[in-house]
Each structure stands twice: as structure tokens, then as C-alpha cells.
Amino acid sequence: MIAIPSILVASMIGVSLQFLYRYIPALGPDRVIFGIIKTLTSGVILATGFMHVLPDSFDDLTSKCLPEDPWRKFPFTTFIAMNSAFLVLMIALVHLQEKVNDDKTSQLLRNRVIALMSKVAGVVVSVVFGLTMGASDNQCTIRSLIAAFCFHELAEGMRLGGPILHAEFKSKMNWKMVLSFPVTMQFGIALGMQIQKIYGETSPTALILMGMLNACSAGLLIDLALVNLLAHELYGPKIQGNMKLHVLGYVATFIGAAGMSLMAKWA
């Protein structure tokens, strides 16, 4: 099946791009272009949460295949997403409240939390894609999904590459994170397809499971984009006081969000 190798290559390219700064100094984490790339990928994350994952959760948890009470009488999607975002905030708070020697150590802990949470959210999204692939018998639809998800995984890889780079893991751990990203994505796709085969597209069990996973993932993605990435980058010391960088940051965020929103037509 062409889907898995195509998506594997796309995700590998995406996650590796930001590590090229050793060979292309302009891509270094302290350079302006890196900050612009980071805001662009933050826009991608935000649109993924709002335009791809959250609507799917609404569809799953309000499906007519589920009993009206309680599934269509309570907004489970937004409730789960809200609590998922709270959970991310609590985890970050616990890490940042630990006694640290300096601000650099505190920032390092924060970046590592972001990297790990980003990876968890990405795996959940890949499981959902696997379910979609498994549910479709139309070859045209499958080809469109593969193309859309290749671009999605390229963007996801770029998104995850930033937090991994900022987390300043040791070289060996960096490579483990980079190499494990495309592998876990393929695992998620295979798992999603297997769940679909076992339970069926309209099975109440599959709908509830995937609806809850989607809602959790949406909460993670939205919180990571707005709180941990955009707020830090757009209101950080590097951009504050520099109107040109501020405008570039907002434009990059909009482009990232607009591109991923457009992909919602096919994905």
C-alpha cells in the first residue's frame, strides 16, 4: 500500500528540516527565520485542532448511531477538550514550579513538556487518519486522503521539529525523537485501520473511542498552539519592540493556519 511509505517519507522530511541548522546557519534556533518557522507551524497546530480534529469529535460523539441520552444532550467534545487543555497546563505548571537553578533550566523543562505533548497529539491524529482510510473503499477518496495527509505529516514534522530542537535533548535522544516520529505515525495509522476493521465505521464503541481521542487531541493542540507556542513567541523578548518581526510573525501564523484550514476540504 502506497499510503504508509509516502507518509513515512513526508513525516521524516518534515521533522528533520529544522535540524539542518548545523549545515545551514540561517536555520539556527537563535535566528529570525527559525522564529518565523515556529510561528508558521504554530498556526498549523492551531488549525489542526480547530479545523480537523475538533469537528471530527463533534461528528463522532453526536452520531445518530449513539443513544441520544447522554451523547446528544451534553457537549462532551468541548468538555473533554477543555479538560485536556487544563491537564496540559497542570503538567506544565508542575514542571515549571520545580526548584530550578536559573531561568534557562525552567525554559528547558517547558520546552521538553511541549515536545512530548506535541508527539502525543500527533499520534492521536494519525490513529484517526487510519480509521478514515480503513473506512473508505473509494480509490479517488483514498488518493486524496493520502495526498492531504502527506502535506499534513510534513507540517506535523516541522511542528514537532521545533519543540524537539528547543528541548535541547542530548544528540542520541534527539535522533530517537526524530526517528520515532514517523514510526509512531505509521503505528497510529495501522492501529486506526485495525480498529475500523474490528468495530466498523458506525460501531458505538469505535465512535465513542475516537470521539474522545479526537477531543483530547484537540484540547492538547489548541493549548500548545495558543499558550505554549504563540503567546511565548509573539510576546517574547525577541519580537517585542520590533514591529517588523511582529508583523512577520502574525503573517506566518496566518499562512500556516490558512494552509491547514484549506486542507480540511479533503482531509
Automatic annotation (TrEMBL):
Bilayer topology: Multi-pass membrane protein
Keyword annotations of the record: Membrane, Transmembrane, Transmembrane helix
Protein origin, superkingdom: Eukaryota
Transmembrane segments: 6-24, 36-54, 74-96, 116-135, 177-195, 207-227, 247-264
Protein location: Membrane
One cellular component term from this protein's GO annotations in UniProt: membrane
Molecular-function GO terms, alphabetical: metal ion transmembrane transporter activity
Stated name of the protein: (thale cress) hypothetical protein
Organism: Arabidopsis thaliana
